[in-house]
Specification:
With 331 residues, the protein is an alpha/beta fold. Helix content is 31%, strand content 26%.
Amino acid sequence: MRAFVFDRYKQPLHEADVPEPAVGTRDVLVSVSAAGVNQLDDKIRDGEFKPILHYKPPLTLGHDVAGTVVSVGAHVRGFEAGDKVYSRPRDYRIGTYAERIAIDQADLAVAPASIGPVEAASLPLVALTAWQALVEKGRVTGGQKVLVHAGAGGVGSIAIQLAKHLGAQVATTVSGRNADFVRELGADVVIDYHTQDFGKELSGYDFVLDSLGGEHLLESLRVLRPGGKAMGIYGVPDPAFAKEIGANPIVRLVIAARSRTTRSLARKLGVTYEFLFMHASGEQLRLIADLVDAGSIRPVVGATFAFDQTPEALASLGKSSIRGKSVITVP
């Protein structure tokens, strides 16, 4: 079948003829209709995650999928041929830039009925990231003040909507041209990062979702109230994350050293910092589908690419200012 792979780290993506997926007893074989494009794919190809994700090329990329069930393994329950589904396959089972993929049933959910496959494929990774940051780890509740950085991006656009659904007051940072857009998503306070310093404009926040890292993360710690929490999804992992993934002692020491400045500032300010590397969850995707069908969350697709344009779609990340997500359509 057709797929897009890279043969060596830092080499470009290219089309290849790869074997059909092996379908285990707990697996669901899905014919891919659309696949979301994520920075994670390009960072894996570039070798940035080699210390924690031990992929061996050649590797088919792709972390988001929407499609149709073709067949199911002997122990699968709740799915059957013809079902419209969506998923973020678990690590070491990725590969949605292909015509078909076998997915563990625990990572799969029936897609929201109110949207099509392109919109559904834009959701899994970013919606799970927002859910796990705000609900699972952040435990955000009504009346709290939440700052979401990069509110017009893939994670940010969903996180704003989810935070509002949870009853929070939401601030976000965007370029001025996206101010009205994020207000439509539910943002109460909009900071134009070209002309305003969020560190001077904001204070007393309960939770920050940081997707920028570096100085933005350090400044984000300072806008929290004592006892507040910053959740990072890009930049500096923390020792708890290294322990969670079972990193070897050398990697643990490196992560501890690189995060020392952030952790020290957090302790000094009386706040906490935690790094999030989202995990696959069909159960959470079912809850997210309910929110989509109820109108509480709407996907944001800023660009679509044909399957033949998959390398161009990946290469466009960071080079264009699209809102939300880019999605590849598979014939």
